[in-house]
Design brief:
alpha/beta; six-stranded mixed beta sheet; four-stranded antiparallel beta sheet; 4 helices; 10 strands
């Protein structure tokens, strides 16, 4: 879901909801929607809502991040201290690499959704508004067993460039907002109000 949520002079602030990363079309659909938002007059900024995003597929994470930033944004640390950097090749759309970003996060923001939000925060690309995320940034891998069951085993975690661990602690917002997202409507959502205050230079 996307829309414009505020106007400052002739410039709009865009809103983009990314509900999941499990759908293997989500990155492409986000790109199409973003293209519509960024067409015409330049947006003053973009609010990305990750509050209900429980994570999903690595490919969707990579493709979404590459819309907004490039270079190394952190690393996956496996058992035995093997380090796999997450290094992005920029795949911009219009001014998506430069547009000011605010990301809405909360307790339901998990896994790769946390990495998306926290990586953009840690590199200085975005500011975060809301509540601490779930603190579940371990990557799990499936193993099929002889009896037909499947074992999911956590084998790596993500470490941002800051080195601050997110597992259990969660990604911490820049601006804390009390209350659960489902308690509000679009008209009285304090998360969106705080995001607008940042983009309009009030915070």
């Amino acid at each position: 879901m996307s829309r414009c949520i505020a106007t400052e002079g002739q410039q709009d602030v865009g809103y983009l909801l990314i509900p999941t990363l499990w759908d293997d079309t989500i990155a492409e659909r986000t790109r199409e929607t973003l293209g519509e938002l960024l067409t015409g007059d330049a947006l003053l900024g973009l609010v990305i809502d990750m509050r209900i995003n429980g994570g999903g597929a690595y490919t969707e994470l990579y493709d979404l991040l590459s819309l907004f930033t490039e270079g190394e944004v952190g690393a996956f640390l496996r058992r035995g201290s093997e380090r796999s950097p997450l290094t992005l090749e920029a795949n911009p759309l219009h001014n998506s690499q430069d547009i000011p970003l605010v990301i809405l996060v909360g307790r339901d923001t998990e896994s790769y959704a946390e990495i998306f939000s926290g990586a953009l925060q840690a590199t200085g690309r975005a500011r975060l508004v809301g509540r601490a995320t779930a603190g579940n940034v371990e990557s799990v891998y499936p193993y099929d067993l002889e009896d037909g069951s499947r074992l999911w085993l956590a084998e790596e975690t993500f470490v941002p460039l800051t080195g601050t661990p997110w597992e259990e602690e969660g990604v911490q917002p820049d601006v804390l907002v009390d209350g659960e997202w489902e308690d509000f409507t679009d008209e009285n959502d304090p998360y969106i109000a705080a995001a607008l205050a940042i983009l309009l230079g009030e915070k």
